[in-house]
TrEMBL record:
Matches recorded under PANTHER family: SENSOR HISTIDINE KINASE TRCS, SENSOR HISTIDINE KINASE YKOH
Protein name as catalogued: histidine kinase
Coiled-coil stretches: none
EC number assigned by the record: 2.7.13.3
UniProt source species: Salinispora arenicola (strain CNS-205)
Keyword Transferase attached: yes
SMART domains noted in UniProt: HAMP, HATPase_c, HisKA
Subcellular location: Cell membrane
Swiss-Prot/TrEMBL catalytic activity: ATP + protein L-histidine = ADP + protein N-phospho-L-histidine
Source superkingdom: Bacteria
GO cellular component, one term: plasma membrane
Length: 457
């Protein structure tokens, strides 16, 4: 089942809310109006009944014939009791309950109870009832003249009130329906305007899914949520495009770098097929060369995996004392390279991933020991978040800024040396992830100073 569009959903929601409000307001309005109309109708009828009762009591021995002879217009002769009302009807009954003066515009029904009231001795005795006259609903009150002389009937037509309330209900319903339709139309236009950007974003996302293109133009702009979403989506596509380009370059560069050790290993493996024919003096170097090539290949693969997966992000951040990391790295390379590694560090503490920072510093020290053949001490200096590794090697080549930290870059004099060309690239990635910067420059008196700077904790 296809779900309705966001535009249709919002339009229906607008119409539903408007309908509920209209129903509530209409019901309240109708209830109040109905109560007021019925209150006024009841008051008119009660006043007429009380006036007729007072007339019968005050008139004394007044007979029905006397009332009928006063004027043919009974409504006026009763002291304007019924005057000014279009819903009241008057009728006079004789002593036996016979009609002496019919009601206008139509006669009222006379029941046995009405005849009993006409024969009552007590003036002002009343009896109430309801009846249906030619599809007109009426309520009737019969008031005794007293002394068995007859009675006066006063009726109120209720159909007009019913028609008025029916008309009022119909109009309120029509207004409610009109408001709901107007709300639905307004909701449609408002939702169309609001979701216009979402619709365009959806089309772009679907096209990206189908084509895989990340260079599609994204509708962005505006300060509302849709505009901010478009801007964020555009930035996300840009980031994905850069990430994909970086991955493609990594694969291309990795293929180029892997080709050299693999070619060398294939040559040496080919020689192994004639291992028995080789002189003893060539067998040892061949096996040593194979071992070193396999180690370099494993190291290159590990560094490629580290760059591609960025597993450093799995490590939690914490306050890190750089002096302790420097001492661990120095001790490790003293044992490994038999070189003198000195440390000079203050109490700088940064927020970061300790293993990643230790790997970055290890790469810098390894780089220094590899290129510095003078035997001079390699110095680790830390001051206020700035980490420097100083050596007395050939120095930093004249390169564009940052080129030294590119993946697989190797200086011309290092082409013949073993290495992956990924060490300084890993340093830059680690430092960038910690909101820091890398640097490299030549050192006074010869050598290089390479390091990074991190914000202090």
């Amino acid at each position: 089942m296809t779900r309705p569009s966001l535009r249709l959903t919002f339009s229906l929601l607008f119409a539903t809310v408007a309908a509920l409000v209209a129903v509530g307001v209409g019901a309240l309005s109708y209830g109040l109006a109905s109560a007021l109309i019925w209150q006024e109708t009841d008051d008119d009828f009660d006043r007429a009944a009380e006036a007729v009762a007072e007339l019968t009591i005050d008139a004394g021995d007044l007979t029905p014939e006397d009332l009928a002879e006063l004027d043919d217009d009974f409504d006026v002769d009763l002291g304007d009791v019924l005057a000014g009302s279009d819903t009241l009807i008057g009728q006079i009954l004789g002593a036996g309950g016979q009609v002496v003066d019919e009601g206008h515009p139509q006669p009222l029904p006379v029941s046995n109870t009405d005849r009993a009231v006409a024969a009552a001795e007590e003036p002002g005795h009343t009896r109430s009832s309801e009846a249906q006259l030619d599809h007109t609903r009426v309520r009737i009150i019969t008031v005794a003249l007293g002394g068995g002389r007859g009675a006066i009937q006063v009726a109120q037509q209720l159909s007009e009130v019913d028609s008025l309330l029916t008309s009022l209900r119909t109009r309120i319903t029509a207004v409610g329906v009109a408001i709901s339709l107007a709300a639905g139309v307004c909701g449609w236009f408002v939702t169309t305007r609001v979701t216009r950007g979402l619709v365009r974003l959806t089309r772009v996302a679907e096209e990206v899914t189908v084509t895989g293109r990340l260079d599609l133009p994204v509708p962005a702009g505006g300060r509302d949520e849709v505009g901010r979403l478009g801007t964020a989506f555009d930035r996300m596509l840009g980031q994905l495009a850069r990430s994909r380009d970086a991955q493609q370059r990594l694969v291309q560069e990795a293929g180029h770098e892997l080709r050299t050790p693999l070619t060398s290993m294939r040559t040496n493996i080919a020689l192994l097929h004639r291992f028995d024919e080789l002189p003893l003096s060539a067998r040892g170097p061949l096996l040593t060369d194979l071992t070193m090539e396999s180690r370099e290949l494993i190291k290159l693969i590990n560094e490629l995996v580290e760059l591609a997966t960025d597993t450093r992000e799995l490590e939690a951040t914490e306050p890190v004392e750089l002096a302790k990391i420097a001492e661990r790295v120095a001790q490790r390379f003293r044992t490994r390279s038999s070189r003198e590694i000195t440390t000079q560090a203050d109490g700088t503490v940064v927020t970061g991933r300790p293993q990643a920072l230790e790997r970055a510093l290890s790469n810098l020290v390894e780089n220094a020991t590899k290129f510095d053949s003078s035997g001079a001490p390699v110095e680790i200096v830390i001051h206020r978040g700035r980490v420097e590794v100083r050596d007395r090697g050939p120095g930093v080549p004249d390169l564009p800024e940052g080129r030294l930290f590119d993946r697989f870059y190797r200086a011309p004099e290092a082409q013949s040396m073993r290495g992956s060309g990924l060490g300084l690239a890993i340093v830059r990635d680690v430092v960038t992830a910690h909101d820091g910067t890398v640097f490299a420059h030549n050192r006074d008196g010869g050598g290089a100073t390479i390091g990074f700077e991190l914000p202090e904790h």
